[in-house]
Amino acid sequence: MKAIKLKRIKPVLTFVLISLISINQVLAVEPGNNDSEAVSWYQIEIILFKNKKEYEQDKEHIAIDMTPLEQKLVLVSGKPMVNSQLQRLDPSELKLNKSFKAMTRSKDYEVLEFAGWKQALIKEQPGIPLVITSGAQHGKHHELEGKLTFRRSRYLHLHADLYMADYTQGANFNLQSWLLEDDNVATRISQLHNNRLEQSTTEDNTTNILLSNSSNSNPETTTIEQESSDLPATLDPALAEATYIATNIAHMNETRRMRSGEIHYLDHPKFGLLVTIEPTDPPFVYNER
Q1: pTM of the model
Q2: Lateral strand order in the sheet of 244-258
Q3: Closest Cα to residue 43, out of 114, 127, 116, 149?
Q4: What pLDDT, on the 0 to 100 scale, is given for residue 200?
Q5: How far apart are CA 259 and CA 79, in angstroms?
Q6: pLDDT tens per residue across span 22-53
Q7: Is the keyword Protease assigned to this protein (predicted)?
Q8: Quick check: 78 and 89 in contact, CB under 8 A?
Q9: Residues 262, 71, 48, 181, CA torsion sign
Q10: Considering only CA atoms, which of 27, 58, 43, 23 is closest in space to residue 117?
Q11: Which residues, in sequence order, are bridge partners of residue 119?
């Protein structure tokens, strides 16, 4: 009787051992799966617009802070060439296309940017800012500029840090009126100082380019080019970029918690932002051979 019991127990023990080995193999694979799930792809769409209705500008002490970024993302129309580029999607296929068409027909708004793209977000990691430059260009600046930062934790989060301003060219600008526009004269002087530093840098670069070109050019050709030019030296396009002064600056600095598929509206009396984000497939196939 005892021998029969041992024969019956051996297959059972073998089955248990095999099961334990299989469980250990599954548990060993699980961390890898969790790591892959930490990276998720999302389709993000935005509409940036300005309000055409007049409003009384608050006398806020605002200066445009466009500090250079260590990491940044930019939108491109063609195929991305580097990791910092995100490809624009076809506007006609975007979820916000109907809203875009309605806003373009409205007399109250002017759309400055309508874009969509795919972006990878890593869970519990700080987002990389997407640089925004929209609207009319004035020298080195745009009517609307700043950055949008998306990140993912338990929820999706957006931080909008955007500036909108009117720009006046230096030749047509009343410096005294601008300095006394509000009580914070120090801020105005600081802006002038920064503009002057930009202009000095541009002048040095322009001088180096001119010296380099003149050393390798034909004197007769150079004389003809100078005589045929209608632009005085003081109106060099490269230097004109530094003569724009920002006025009526409006700043949006807002953080929003979002859920997938929701459409959020962030507004300021001068401009606004419509944004939506939802999961999507990556723009490529992993482990493709």
Answers
A1: 0.65
A2: 130-138, 141-152, 156-169, 244-258
A3: 116
A4: 53
A5: 29
A6: 333 333 333 334 545 688 999 999 999 999 88
A7: no
A8: no
A9: positive
A10: 43
A11: 42
